[in-house]
Amino acid sequence: MGVLLGIGFLGGLITGFSPCIVPVLPVVVAGGATGGSRWRPYAIIGGLVASFSLFTLAGGSVLSALHLPQDFLRDLGIVALVVLGVGFLVPSIGELLERPFARLGARSERRSGSGFLLGVSLGLVFVPCAGPVLAAISVVAATHRVGLTSVLLTVAYAAGTAVPLLAMALLARRTATGWRRLRDRAPMLRSVAGVVLVLTGLSIAFNLTRPLQTAVPGYTSALEDHVEGGTGVTKRLQALTGERRPFSTAVASTTSLPDLGPAPNFRGITAWLNTPGDRPLTLQELRGKVVLVDFWTYSCINCQRTLPHVEAWYQEYKSDGFVVVGVHTPEFDFEHVVSNVKAAVGQLGVDYPVAIDDDYATWDAYGNQYWPAEYLIDQNGDIRHVQFGEGDYGATEAAIRTLLRAGGSKMLPGATMVSNLTPDEPTTPESYVGYDRMDDYVGGEVEPGVAATYTAPQQVPLNGWALSGVWTVGAEEATAGPGAGIEMRFTGRDVYLVMGGTGTVQVTVNGTPQAPVTVSGIPDLHTLFSSTDSTTGLLQLQFSPGVSAYDFTFG
Fold first, then answer.
1. Looking at residue 9, what is its pLDDT?
2. Averaged in consecutive runs of 10 residues, what is the pLDDT profile of the chain (555 residues)?
3. End-to-end alpha carbon distance in the chain
4. Where in the chain is CATH 3.40.30.10?
5. Global pTM?
6. Closest by alpha carbon to 517, among 537, 497, 533?
7. Could you point out which of 281, 425, 490, 551 has its C-alpha 20 to 30 Å from the C-alpha of 164?
8. pLDDT tens for residues 120-158?
9. Quick one: angle between helices 25-33 and 40-54, nearest 10?
10. Quick one: pLDDT at residue 85?
Protein backbone atom coordinates (compact mmCIF):
# COMPACT_ATOMS: atom_id res chain seq x y z
CA MET A 1 0.00 0.00 0.00
CA GLY A 2 2.75 2.44 0.96
CA VAL A 3 4.64 1.83 -2.30
CA LEU A 4 1.48 2.30 -4.36
CA LEU A 5 0.61 5.59 -2.65
CA GLY A 6 4.20 6.77 -3.09
CA ILE A 7 4.00 6.05 -6.83
CA GLY A 8 0.66 7.89 -7.02
CA PHE A 9 2.09 10.92 -5.21
CA LEU A 10 5.23 10.99 -7.37
CA GLY A 11 3.16 10.63 -10.55
CA GLY A 12 1.02 13.58 -9.47
CA LEU A 13 4.12 15.59 -8.58
CA ILE A 14 5.48 15.12 -12.10
CA THR A 15 2.09 16.07 -13.55
CA GLY A 16 2.26 19.32 -11.56
CA PHE A 17 5.22 20.40 -13.71
CA SER A 18 3.61 19.43 -17.02
CA PRO A 19 1.72 21.49 -19.63
CA CYS A 20 -1.54 20.25 -18.05
CA ILE A 21 -1.33 22.99 -15.41
CA VAL A 22 -1.42 25.76 -18.03
CA PRO A 23 -5.18 26.47 -17.67
CA VAL A 24 -5.14 26.71 -13.84
CA LEU A 25 -1.73 28.32 -13.28
CA PRO A 26 -2.87 31.95 -13.75
CA VAL A 27 -5.71 31.45 -11.28
CA VAL A 28 -3.44 29.85 -8.67
CA VAL A 29 -0.93 32.70 -8.92
CA ALA A 30 -3.55 35.47 -8.98
CA GLY A 31 -5.63 33.89 -6.22
CA GLY A 32 -2.59 33.27 -4.02
CA ALA A 33 -1.40 36.87 -4.38
CA THR A 34 -4.70 38.40 -3.19
CA GLY A 35 -6.74 38.24 0.02
CA GLY A 36 -5.94 39.13 3.59
CA SER A 37 -5.21 35.70 5.04
CA ARG A 38 -1.84 33.99 4.91
CA TRP A 39 -3.76 30.70 4.77
CA ARG A 40 -5.41 31.58 1.46
CA PRO A 41 -2.94 29.66 -0.78
CA TYR A 42 -3.45 26.56 1.35
CA ALA A 43 -7.22 26.97 1.12
CA ILE A 44 -7.07 27.26 -2.69
CA ILE A 45 -5.00 24.13 -3.12
CA GLY A 46 -7.02 22.25 -0.48
CA GLY A 47 -10.20 23.01 -2.42
CA LEU A 48 -8.58 21.82 -5.63
CA VAL A 49 -7.47 18.52 -4.09
CA ALA A 50 -10.87 17.92 -2.47
CA SER A 51 -13.00 18.60 -5.55
CA PHE A 52 -10.66 16.87 -7.99
CA SER A 53 -10.52 13.73 -5.82
CA LEU A 54 -14.28 13.62 -5.28
CA PHE A 55 -15.10 14.18 -8.95
CA THR A 56 -12.55 11.58 -10.13
CA LEU A 57 -14.00 8.89 -7.86
CA ALA A 58 -17.72 9.59 -7.87
CA GLY A 59 -18.50 12.35 -10.35
CA GLY A 60 -19.58 10.09 -13.22
CA SER A 61 -21.90 7.99 -11.07
CA VAL A 62 -23.49 11.04 -9.42
CA LEU A 63 -24.13 12.78 -12.73
CA SER A 64 -25.63 9.61 -14.21
CA ALA A 65 -27.94 9.20 -11.21
CA LEU A 66 -29.12 12.80 -11.66
CA HIS A 67 -29.34 12.41 -15.46
CA LEU A 68 -26.95 15.29 -16.00
CA PRO A 69 -24.38 15.56 -18.82
CA GLN A 70 -20.85 14.43 -17.96
CA ASP A 71 -19.39 17.90 -18.57
CA PHE A 72 -21.82 19.52 -16.10
CA LEU A 73 -19.32 19.81 -13.25
CA ARG A 74 -16.64 21.22 -15.57
CA ASP A 75 -19.13 23.85 -16.78
CA LEU A 76 -20.07 24.56 -13.17
CA GLY A 77 -16.40 25.11 -12.35
CA ILE A 78 -16.03 27.54 -15.26
CA VAL A 79 -19.08 29.51 -14.11
CA ALA A 80 -17.66 29.60 -10.57
CA LEU A 81 -14.34 30.99 -11.85
CA VAL A 82 -16.10 33.75 -13.78
CA VAL A 83 -18.40 34.63 -10.86
CA LEU A 84 -15.48 34.76 -8.42
CA GLY A 85 -13.60 36.94 -10.89
CA VAL A 86 -16.52 39.34 -11.00
CA GLY A 87 -16.49 39.29 -7.19
CA PHE A 88 -12.85 40.44 -7.26
CA LEU A 89 -13.76 43.27 -9.63
CA VAL A 90 -16.94 44.41 -7.85
CA PRO A 91 -16.44 44.66 -4.06
CA SER A 92 -20.17 44.45 -3.26
CA ILE A 93 -20.48 41.15 -5.13
CA GLY A 94 -17.28 39.92 -3.46
CA GLU A 95 -18.75 40.63 -0.03
CA LEU A 96 -21.91 38.75 -1.02
CA LEU A 97 -19.87 35.70 -2.07
CA GLU A 98 -17.89 35.78 1.17
CA ARG A 99 -20.99 36.08 3.36
CA PRO A 100 -21.45 32.27 3.72
CA PHE A 101 -18.02 32.20 5.40
CA ALA A 102 -18.86 34.96 7.87
CA ARG A 103 -19.57 32.46 10.63
CA LEU A 104 -15.92 31.40 10.45
CA GLY A 105 -15.00 34.58 12.26
CA ALA A 106 -12.44 37.15 11.21
CA ARG A 107 -12.29 38.73 7.79
CA SER A 108 -8.99 37.04 7.00
CA GLU A 109 -10.61 33.68 7.69
CA ARG A 110 -13.46 34.57 5.36
CA ARG A 111 -10.85 35.24 2.69
CA SER A 112 -9.55 31.71 3.27
CA GLY A 113 -13.08 30.37 2.89
CA SER A 114 -13.52 32.08 -0.46
CA GLY A 115 -10.08 30.75 -1.41
CA PHE A 116 -11.30 27.22 -0.74
CA LEU A 117 -14.29 27.90 -3.02
CA LEU A 118 -11.88 29.11 -5.69
CA GLY A 119 -9.88 25.89 -5.32
CA VAL A 120 -13.06 23.81 -5.62
CA SER A 121 -13.85 25.48 -8.94
CA LEU A 122 -10.31 24.79 -10.14
CA GLY A 123 -10.61 21.11 -9.25
CA LEU A 124 -13.71 20.83 -11.45
CA VAL A 125 -11.95 22.19 -14.54
CA PHE A 126 -8.50 20.72 -13.92
CA VAL A 127 -7.88 17.71 -16.15
CA PRO A 128 -4.38 16.26 -15.51
CA CYS A 129 -2.29 14.33 -18.01
CA ALA A 130 -3.77 10.95 -17.18
CA GLY A 131 -0.95 8.46 -16.80
CA PRO A 132 -1.37 4.82 -15.74
CA VAL A 133 -2.04 5.73 -12.09
CA LEU A 134 -4.99 7.98 -12.93
CA ALA A 135 -6.18 5.49 -15.56
CA ALA A 136 -6.26 2.79 -12.89
CA ILE A 137 -8.28 5.09 -10.63
CA SER A 138 -10.75 5.76 -13.45
CA VAL A 139 -11.17 2.03 -14.18
CA VAL A 140 -11.96 1.32 -10.53
CA ALA A 141 -14.43 4.20 -10.34
CA ALA A 142 -16.12 3.23 -13.62
CA THR A 143 -16.71 -0.31 -12.41
CA HIS A 144 -18.19 0.95 -9.13
CA ARG A 145 -15.51 -0.78 -7.03
CA VAL A 146 -14.35 2.31 -5.19
CA GLY A 147 -12.69 1.32 -1.94
CA LEU A 148 -10.16 2.62 0.56
CA THR A 149 -7.20 1.89 -1.74
CA SER A 150 -8.65 3.79 -4.71
CA VAL A 151 -9.63 6.72 -2.48
CA LEU A 152 -6.16 6.98 -0.95
CA LEU A 153 -4.49 6.60 -4.35
CA THR A 154 -6.65 9.37 -5.81
CA VAL A 155 -5.87 11.73 -2.94
CA ALA A 156 -2.15 10.88 -3.18
CA TYR A 157 -2.12 11.67 -6.91
CA ALA A 158 -4.04 14.94 -6.42
CA ALA A 159 -1.82 15.95 -3.49
CA GLY A 160 1.31 15.32 -5.57
CA THR A 161 -0.08 17.48 -8.35
CA ALA A 162 -0.94 20.20 -5.84
CA VAL A 163 2.57 20.56 -4.39
CA PRO A 164 4.05 22.61 -7.29
CA LEU A 165 0.86 24.67 -7.50
CA LEU A 166 1.00 25.42 -3.78
CA ALA A 167 4.63 26.49 -4.11
CA MET A 168 3.67 28.90 -6.89
CA ALA A 169 0.75 30.29 -4.88
CA LEU A 170 2.96 30.83 -1.81
CA LEU A 171 5.63 32.51 -3.92
CA ALA A 172 3.04 34.80 -5.47
CA ARG A 173 1.69 35.71 -2.03
CA ARG A 174 5.14 36.35 -0.59
CA THR A 175 5.96 38.59 -3.54
CA ALA A 176 2.70 40.51 -3.22
CA THR A 177 2.97 41.02 0.57
CA GLY A 178 6.71 41.66 0.63
CA TRP A 179 6.87 44.51 -1.87
CA ARG A 180 5.63 47.78 -0.46
CA ARG A 181 4.41 49.00 -3.84
CA LEU A 182 2.21 45.93 -4.26
CA ARG A 183 0.85 46.25 -0.72
CA ASP A 184 -0.05 49.88 -1.40
CA ARG A 185 -1.87 48.88 -4.54
CA ALA A 186 -3.87 45.96 -3.16
CA PRO A 187 -7.19 47.11 -4.72
CA MET A 188 -5.57 47.26 -8.16
CA LEU A 189 -3.99 43.82 -7.62
CA ARG A 190 -7.39 42.42 -6.67
CA SER A 191 -8.89 43.88 -9.86
CA VAL A 192 -6.11 42.34 -11.94
CA ALA A 193 -6.76 39.00 -10.27
CA GLY A 194 -10.45 39.36 -11.10
CA VAL A 195 -9.68 39.95 -14.76
CA VAL A 196 -7.36 36.90 -14.76
CA LEU A 197 -10.10 34.70 -13.28
CA VAL A 198 -12.72 35.86 -15.78
CA LEU A 199 -10.40 35.51 -18.77
CA THR A 200 -9.20 32.10 -17.59
CA GLY A 201 -12.75 30.83 -17.19
CA LEU A 202 -13.70 32.03 -20.67
CA SER A 203 -10.49 30.61 -22.17
CA ILE A 204 -11.20 27.17 -20.71
CA ALA A 205 -14.84 27.36 -21.83
CA PHE A 206 -13.82 28.01 -25.44
CA ASN A 207 -10.76 25.69 -25.37
CA LEU A 208 -8.41 28.61 -26.03
CA THR A 209 -5.76 27.10 -23.74
CA ARG A 210 -5.35 23.94 -25.84
CA PRO A 211 -2.88 25.45 -28.40
CA LEU A 212 -0.65 26.71 -25.57
CA GLN A 213 -0.75 23.33 -23.83
CA THR A 214 0.16 21.64 -27.09
CA ALA A 215 2.97 24.10 -27.81
CA VAL A 216 4.62 23.60 -24.42
CA PRO A 217 7.01 20.62 -24.65
CA GLY A 218 5.60 17.50 -23.03
CA TYR A 219 8.93 16.70 -21.43
CA THR A 220 7.27 15.26 -18.34
CA SER A 221 5.38 12.53 -20.19
CA ALA A 222 8.31 10.16 -20.46
CA LEU A 223 9.25 10.72 -16.83
CA GLU A 224 5.68 10.13 -15.66
CA ASP A 225 5.42 6.98 -17.77
CA HIS A 226 8.70 5.79 -16.28
CA VAL A 227 7.51 6.32 -12.72
CA GLU A 228 3.94 5.03 -13.17
CA GLY A 229 4.26 2.67 -16.10
CA GLY A 230 7.76 1.47 -15.28
CA THR A 231 8.32 1.53 -11.53
CA GLY A 232 4.59 1.01 -10.87
CA VAL A 233 4.38 -1.96 -13.20
CA THR A 234 7.59 -3.38 -11.77
CA LYS A 235 6.35 -3.22 -8.18
CA ARG A 236 2.95 -4.65 -9.09
CA LEU A 237 4.34 -7.54 -11.11
CA GLN A 238 6.97 -8.33 -8.50
CA ALA A 239 4.23 -8.47 -5.89
CA LEU A 240 2.36 -10.98 -8.08
CA THR A 241 5.28 -13.09 -9.26
CA GLY A 242 7.86 -12.90 -6.48
CA GLU A 243 11.20 -11.16 -6.00
CA ARG A 244 13.08 -9.75 -8.95
CA ARG A 245 15.56 -12.19 -10.40
CA PRO A 246 19.19 -11.05 -10.55
CA PHE A 247 20.75 -10.44 -13.96
CA SER A 248 22.50 -13.80 -13.88
CA THR A 249 21.30 -15.42 -17.09
CA ALA A 250 22.82 -14.86 -20.50
CA VAL A 251 19.71 -13.08 -21.82
CA ALA A 252 19.38 -10.75 -18.84
CA SER A 253 23.03 -9.79 -18.76
CA THR A 254 23.17 -8.82 -22.44
CA THR A 255 20.16 -6.49 -22.55
CA SER A 256 19.22 -3.25 -20.85
CA LEU A 257 15.53 -4.18 -20.60
CA PRO A 258 14.17 -4.25 -17.03
CA ASP A 259 13.56 -7.60 -15.36
CA LEU A 260 9.99 -7.56 -14.00
CA GLY A 261 10.08 -11.04 -12.53
CA PRO A 262 8.82 -14.45 -13.70
CA ALA A 263 5.66 -14.37 -15.81
CA PRO A 264 2.56 -16.08 -14.38
CA ASN A 265 1.48 -19.17 -16.31
CA PHE A 266 -1.84 -19.33 -18.19
CA ARG A 267 -4.61 -20.10 -15.70
CA GLY A 268 -8.26 -21.09 -15.92
CA ILE A 269 -8.30 -21.10 -19.73
CA THR A 270 -11.68 -22.20 -21.15
CA ALA A 271 -10.36 -23.27 -24.56
CA TRP A 272 -7.39 -22.89 -26.91
CA LEU A 273 -7.48 -21.90 -30.56
CA ASN A 274 -4.78 -22.11 -33.26
CA THR A 275 -2.70 -24.72 -31.43
CA PRO A 276 -2.13 -28.30 -32.68
CA GLY A 277 -5.31 -30.13 -31.74
CA ASP A 278 -6.36 -27.04 -29.74
CA ARG A 279 -4.21 -28.38 -26.91
CA PRO A 280 -3.13 -26.10 -24.03
CA LEU A 281 0.19 -24.28 -23.96
CA THR A 282 2.29 -23.54 -20.90
CA LEU A 283 5.05 -21.02 -20.42
CA GLN A 284 7.27 -23.86 -19.22
CA GLU A 285 7.15 -25.59 -22.61
CA LEU A 286 7.77 -22.22 -24.32
CA ARG A 287 11.07 -21.70 -22.44
CA GLY A 288 13.81 -20.82 -24.89
CA LYS A 289 11.42 -18.67 -26.97
CA VAL A 290 10.46 -15.00 -26.76
CA VAL A 291 6.75 -14.86 -25.92
CA LEU A 292 4.35 -11.94 -26.31
CA VAL A 293 1.23 -12.32 -24.16
CA ASP A 294 -1.39 -10.00 -25.67
CA PHE A 295 -4.60 -9.38 -23.69
CA TRP A 296 -7.43 -8.47 -26.08
CA THR A 297 -11.11 -8.89 -26.84
CA TYR A 298 -12.47 -9.13 -30.36
CA SER A 299 -15.09 -6.32 -30.38
CA CYS A 300 -12.63 -3.72 -29.01
CA ILE A 301 -11.52 -1.20 -31.67
CA ASN A 302 -8.33 -0.44 -29.74
CA CYS A 303 -7.46 -4.15 -29.89
CA GLN A 304 -8.38 -4.38 -33.56
CA ARG A 305 -6.05 -1.49 -34.40
CA THR A 306 -3.25 -3.28 -32.52
CA LEU A 307 -3.79 -6.69 -34.17
CA PRO A 308 -2.06 -5.89 -37.53
CA HIS A 309 1.13 -5.01 -35.63
CA VAL A 310 1.01 -8.13 -33.47
CA GLU A 311 0.25 -10.36 -36.47
CA ALA A 312 3.10 -8.77 -38.47
CA TRP A 313 5.57 -9.41 -35.62
CA TYR A 314 4.43 -13.02 -35.39
CA GLN A 315 4.83 -13.65 -39.11
CA GLU A 316 8.19 -11.83 -39.26
CA TYR A 317 9.91 -13.39 -36.25
CA LYS A 318 8.27 -16.78 -35.57
CA SER A 319 11.06 -18.59 -37.43
CA ASP A 320 13.56 -16.91 -35.07
CA GLY A 321 11.95 -18.24 -31.90
CA PHE A 322 9.10 -15.72 -31.34
CA VAL A 323 5.63 -16.78 -30.17
CA VAL A 324 2.46 -14.75 -29.61
CA VAL A 325 -0.29 -15.91 -27.28
CA GLY A 326 -3.43 -13.81 -27.51
CA VAL A 327 -5.29 -14.04 -24.20
CA HIS A 328 -8.90 -13.27 -25.11
CA THR A 329 -10.54 -11.87 -21.98
CA PRO A 330 -14.18 -10.89 -22.75
CA GLU A 331 -15.78 -7.55 -21.97
CA PHE A 332 -19.35 -8.44 -22.96
CA ASP A 333 -21.41 -11.59 -22.40
CA PHE A 334 -21.44 -12.54 -26.09
CA GLU A 335 -17.62 -12.61 -26.04
CA HIS A 336 -17.76 -15.50 -23.55
CA VAL A 337 -19.14 -17.75 -26.30
CA VAL A 338 -16.22 -19.79 -27.67
CA SER A 339 -17.81 -20.18 -31.12
CA ASN A 340 -18.15 -16.38 -31.36
CA VAL A 341 -14.48 -15.90 -30.53
CA LYS A 342 -13.46 -18.63 -32.99
CA ALA A 343 -15.46 -16.96 -35.78
CA ALA A 344 -13.97 -13.55 -34.97
CA VAL A 345 -10.44 -14.97 -34.90
CA GLY A 346 -11.00 -16.28 -38.43
CA GLN A 347 -12.54 -13.03 -39.68
CA LEU A 348 -9.70 -10.94 -38.21
CA GLY A 349 -6.99 -13.19 -39.65
CA VAL A 350 -5.43 -14.10 -36.30
CA ASP A 351 -3.03 -17.01 -36.89
CA TYR A 352 -1.20 -17.25 -33.58
CA PRO A 353 -2.42 -19.21 -30.53
CA VAL A 354 -5.40 -17.76 -28.64
CA ALA A 355 -6.25 -18.62 -25.02
CA ILE A 356 -9.87 -17.96 -24.07
CA ASP A 357 -9.81 -16.49 -20.57
CA ASP A 358 -13.56 -16.43 -19.83
CA ASP A 359 -13.15 -16.36 -16.05
CA TYR A 360 -10.44 -13.66 -15.97
CA ALA A 361 -8.09 -16.11 -14.24
CA THR A 362 -5.03 -15.24 -16.35
CA TRP A 363 -6.05 -11.56 -16.44
CA ASP A 364 -6.05 -11.54 -12.63
CA ALA A 365 -2.79 -13.50 -12.43
CA TYR A 366 -1.09 -10.67 -14.32
CA GLY A 367 -3.00 -7.98 -12.39
CA ASN A 368 -4.03 -6.60 -15.78
CA GLN A 369 -6.47 -3.71 -16.24
CA TYR A 370 -6.34 -2.85 -19.93
CA TRP A 371 -7.47 -3.88 -23.43
CA PRO A 372 -5.08 -4.23 -25.17
CA ALA A 373 -2.10 -4.98 -22.92
CA GLU A 374 1.13 -6.65 -23.98
CA TYR A 375 3.64 -8.48 -21.77
CA LEU A 376 6.90 -9.49 -23.46
CA ILE A 377 8.58 -12.54 -21.88
CA ASP A 378 12.19 -13.59 -22.48
CA GLN A 379 13.63 -17.06 -23.08
CA ASN A 380 13.94 -17.62 -19.30
CA GLY A 381 10.28 -16.88 -18.57
CA ASP A 382 10.80 -13.34 -17.18
CA ILE A 383 8.70 -10.32 -18.14
CA ARG A 384 10.97 -7.76 -19.78
CA HIS A 385 8.64 -5.18 -21.42
CA VAL A 386 5.03 -4.06 -20.86
CA GLN A 387 2.80 -1.92 -23.07
CA PHE A 388 -0.70 -0.79 -22.06
CA GLY A 389 -3.08 0.42 -24.76
CA GLU A 390 -2.38 1.31 -28.36
CA GLY A 391 0.76 2.87 -29.75
CA ASP A 392 4.49 2.76 -29.03
CA TYR A 393 4.78 -0.16 -31.46
CA GLY A 394 8.36 0.70 -32.35
CA ALA A 395 9.48 0.28 -28.73
CA THR A 396 7.74 -3.09 -28.42
CA GLU A 397 9.25 -4.38 -31.67
CA ALA A 398 12.69 -3.11 -30.63
CA ALA A 399 12.36 -5.06 -27.36
CA ILE A 400 11.37 -8.20 -29.31
CA ARG A 401 14.42 -7.85 -31.54
CA THR A 402 16.69 -7.20 -28.55
CA LEU A 403 15.59 -10.40 -26.81
CA LEU A 404 15.85 -12.47 -29.98
CA ARG A 405 19.41 -11.24 -30.57
CA ALA A 406 20.32 -11.91 -26.93
CA GLY A 407 19.07 -15.47 -27.42
CA GLY A 408 21.33 -16.05 -30.40
CA SER A 409 19.32 -14.85 -33.42
CA LYS A 410 21.85 -12.66 -35.22
CA MET A 411 20.38 -12.45 -38.76
CA LEU A 412 16.96 -10.92 -38.11
CA PRO A 413 14.79 -9.60 -40.96
CA GLY A 414 14.13 -5.87 -41.19
CA ALA A 415 11.64 -4.21 -38.87
CA THR A 416 7.98 -4.46 -39.91
CA MET A 417 6.28 -1.52 -41.62
CA VAL A 418 2.66 -1.34 -40.42
CA SER A 419 0.81 1.99 -40.32
CA ASN A 420 0.06 3.30 -36.85
CA LEU A 421 -3.67 4.05 -36.76
CA THR A 422 -3.73 5.21 -33.13
CA PRO A 423 -5.74 8.47 -32.96
CA ASP A 424 -3.57 11.51 -32.21
CA GLU A 425 -6.43 14.03 -31.94
CA PRO A 426 -9.14 14.52 -29.28
CA THR A 427 -12.02 12.08 -29.66
CA THR A 428 -15.27 11.42 -27.84
CA PRO A 429 -14.77 8.94 -24.97
CA GLU A 430 -16.05 5.38 -25.22
CA SER A 431 -19.80 5.29 -24.57
CA TYR A 432 -21.67 2.22 -23.30
CA VAL A 433 -25.35 1.75 -24.16
CA GLY A 434 -26.31 -0.72 -21.40
CA TYR A 435 -27.56 0.70 -18.10
CA ASP A 436 -24.58 -0.65 -16.13
CA ARG A 437 -22.21 1.96 -17.60
CA MET A 438 -24.24 4.55 -19.55
CA ASP A 439 -22.39 7.43 -17.86
CA ASP A 440 -22.70 9.90 -20.75
CA TYR A 441 -26.42 9.34 -21.43
CA VAL A 442 -28.39 12.62 -21.48
CA GLY A 443 -31.94 11.41 -22.14
CA GLY A 444 -34.76 10.83 -19.68
CA GLU A 445 -34.95 8.20 -16.97
CA VAL A 446 -34.10 4.68 -18.10
CA GLU A 447 -36.45 1.76 -17.39
CA PRO A 448 -34.19 -1.31 -17.11
CA GLY A 449 -35.23 -4.56 -18.74
CA VAL A 450 -38.61 -3.49 -20.18
CA ALA A 451 -39.70 -2.05 -23.50
CA ALA A 452 -40.17 1.70 -23.02
CA THR A 453 -40.54 4.77 -25.22
CA TYR A 454 -37.79 7.41 -25.04
CA THR A 455 -37.58 10.97 -26.32
CA ALA A 456 -34.27 12.65 -27.11
CA PRO A 457 -33.75 16.23 -25.84
CA GLN A 458 -33.86 19.07 -28.35
CA GLN A 459 -30.13 19.68 -27.89
CA VAL A 460 -27.63 16.88 -27.25
CA PRO A 461 -24.37 18.21 -25.74
CA LEU A 462 -20.92 17.32 -27.05
CA ASN A 463 -19.95 13.74 -26.08
CA GLY A 464 -23.50 13.06 -24.92
CA TRP A 465 -26.08 10.71 -26.44
CA ALA A 466 -29.78 9.94 -26.08
CA LEU A 467 -32.34 7.30 -27.06
CA SER A 468 -35.56 7.87 -29.01
CA GLY A 469 -38.40 5.52 -29.86
CA VAL A 470 -38.93 2.14 -28.22
CA TRP A 471 -35.93 0.41 -26.57
CA THR A 472 -35.41 -2.42 -24.12
CA VAL A 473 -32.32 -1.40 -22.14
CA GLY A 474 -30.34 -4.24 -20.59
CA ALA A 475 -27.22 -4.23 -18.42
CA GLU A 476 -24.82 -4.39 -21.39
CA GLU A 477 -26.93 -3.49 -24.40
CA ALA A 478 -30.14 -1.87 -25.62
CA THR A 479 -32.39 -3.70 -28.12
CA ALA A 480 -34.34 -1.65 -30.65
CA GLY A 481 -38.10 -1.67 -30.97
CA PRO A 482 -40.42 0.36 -33.27
CA GLY A 483 -39.02 3.79 -34.20
CA ALA A 484 -35.79 3.23 -32.26
CA GLY A 485 -33.07 5.82 -32.72
CA ILE A 486 -29.94 7.25 -31.08
CA GLU A 487 -28.60 10.80 -31.28
CA MET A 488 -25.00 11.57 -30.32
CA ARG A 489 -22.81 14.64 -30.65
CA PHE A 490 -19.26 13.40 -31.21
CA THR A 491 -15.71 14.34 -32.15
CA GLY A 492 -13.47 12.03 -34.18
CA ARG A 493 -12.53 10.75 -37.61
CA ASP A 494 -14.28 7.42 -37.20
CA VAL A 495 -17.32 6.22 -35.25
CA TYR A 496 -17.78 2.54 -34.34
CA LEU A 497 -20.62 0.70 -32.63
CA VAL A 498 -20.70 -2.88 -31.36
CA MET A 499 -24.02 -4.35 -32.51
CA GLY A 500 -25.78 -7.71 -32.61
CA GLY A 501 -29.06 -9.13 -33.87
CA THR A 502 -30.33 -8.84 -37.43
CA GLY A 503 -31.40 -5.73 -39.28
CA THR A 504 -30.20 -2.42 -40.66
CA VAL A 505 -29.12 0.92 -39.24
CA GLN A 506 -29.63 4.20 -41.12
CA VAL A 507 -26.82 6.68 -40.42
CA THR A 508 -26.87 10.48 -40.74
CA VAL A 509 -24.03 12.84 -39.80
CA ASN A 510 -24.78 16.58 -39.63
CA GLY A 511 -27.85 15.97 -41.77
CA THR A 512 -25.95 14.08 -44.50
CA PRO A 513 -27.02 10.44 -45.03
CA GLN A 514 -24.24 7.86 -44.89
CA ALA A 515 -24.17 4.28 -46.17
CA PRO A 516 -26.61 2.12 -44.17
CA VAL A 517 -25.09 -0.58 -41.96
CA THR A 518 -26.30 -4.18 -42.15
CA VAL A 519 -26.17 -6.17 -38.90
CA SER A 520 -26.23 -9.97 -38.81
CA GLY A 521 -24.38 -12.89 -37.28
CA ILE A 522 -22.48 -12.72 -34.02
CA PRO A 523 -22.30 -9.35 -32.23
CA ASP A 524 -19.34 -7.43 -33.57
CA LEU A 525 -17.84 -4.00 -34.18
CA HIS A 526 -19.35 -1.99 -37.07
CA THR A 527 -18.11 1.23 -38.67
CA LEU A 528 -20.82 3.89 -38.77
CA PHE A 529 -18.80 6.82 -40.10
CA SER A 530 -15.29 7.34 -41.43
CA SER A 531 -13.54 10.52 -42.55
CA THR A 532 -10.04 11.67 -43.42
CA ASP A 533 -10.45 14.69 -41.13
CA SER A 534 -11.55 15.02 -37.53
CA THR A 535 -15.25 15.86 -37.40
CA THR A 536 -17.44 17.34 -34.70
CA GLY A 537 -21.11 16.87 -35.37
CA LEU A 538 -24.45 15.24 -34.72
CA LEU A 539 -24.75 11.51 -35.37
CA GLN A 540 -28.34 10.27 -35.88
CA LEU A 541 -29.10 6.56 -36.10
CA GLN A 542 -32.35 4.77 -36.93
CA PHE A 543 -32.51 1.06 -36.05
CA SER A 544 -34.75 -1.68 -37.40
CA PRO A 545 -36.40 -3.65 -34.57
CA GLY A 546 -34.26 -6.44 -33.13
CA VAL A 547 -30.86 -4.81 -33.50
CA SER A 548 -28.91 -4.53 -30.23
CA ALA A 549 -26.41 -1.73 -29.55
CA TYR A 550 -23.60 -2.24 -27.01
CA ASP A 551 -20.76 0.24 -27.13
CA PHE A 552 -19.64 3.33 -29.12
CA THR A 553 -15.94 3.90 -29.73
CA PHE A 554 -14.13 6.55 -31.76
CA GLY A 555 -10.95 6.95 -33.75
1. 76
2. 64 58 61 64 77 66 54 63 71 64 43 62 54 47 52 74 76 63 56 69 59 41 44 46 37 64 91 93 93 92 89 92 94 87 90 94 89 92 90 89 85 78 79 87 89 93 93 94 95 92 95 94 90 91 95 89
3. 36
4. 243-406
5. 0.53
6. 497
7. 425
8. 766 665 544 444 444 455 444 444 445 566 677 677 777
9. 150
10. 67
Q: What is the DSSP letter of 278?
A: G
Q: Which overall architecture, per CATH, does domain 431-554 show? A: Sandwich (2.60)
Per-residue pLDDT, 87: 67
Count CB neighbours of 69 within 10 A. Answer: 18
Amino acid at 511: G
Task: Identify the bridge partners of residue 209 per DSSP, sorted by sequence position.
Answer: none
520, 526, 529, 531: CA torsion to nearest 10 = -130
Residue 161's contacts (CB-CB under 8 Å, 6 or more residues apart) are 12, 13, 15, 16, 21, 52, 128
CA distances 277 to 280, 344, 365, Å, are 9, 19, 26
CA dihedral 269, 364, 500, 529 (to 10 degrees): -130
| pLDDT number for residue 532 | 87
Handedness of CA 520, 467, 441, 207 (dihedral sign): positive
CB burial of residue 185 (10 Å; 0-12, 13-18, 19+): middle
How far is Cα 317 from Cα 311, in angstroms, rounded to an integer?
10
Helical H runs in 16-106? 25-33, 40-54, 60-65, 72-89, 91-98
Can you state the angle between helices 25-33 and 148-178, rounded to 10 degrees?
Answer: 50
Q: 243-406 falls under which CATH superfamily?
A: Glutaredoxin (3.40.30.10)
CATH 2.60.120.260 intervals, the chain: 431-554
Which residues are CB-neighbours of 417 under 8 A, at least 6 positions away? none
Q: Cα–Cα–Cα angle for 53, 12, 173, nearest 5°?
A: 85
Say which DSSP state 66 is in. T
Instruction: Please tell me what DSSP assigns to residue 263.
Output: P
Spacing of C-alpha 29 from chain mean position = 29
The rounded radius of gyration (Å) of the Cα atoms in the chain is 26
For 466-483, the pLDDT digits (tens) are 999 999 999 889 999 999
Question: What is the DSSP track for 173-221?
Answer: HHHHHH-HHHHHTHHHHHHHHHHHHHHHHHHHHTTTTHHHHHHS--THH
On whether the CB atoms of residues 410 and 403 are closer than 8 A, the answer is: no
Whole-number Å distance between alpha carbons of 126 and 162: 11
Look at residue 511 and give its three-state secondary structure: coil
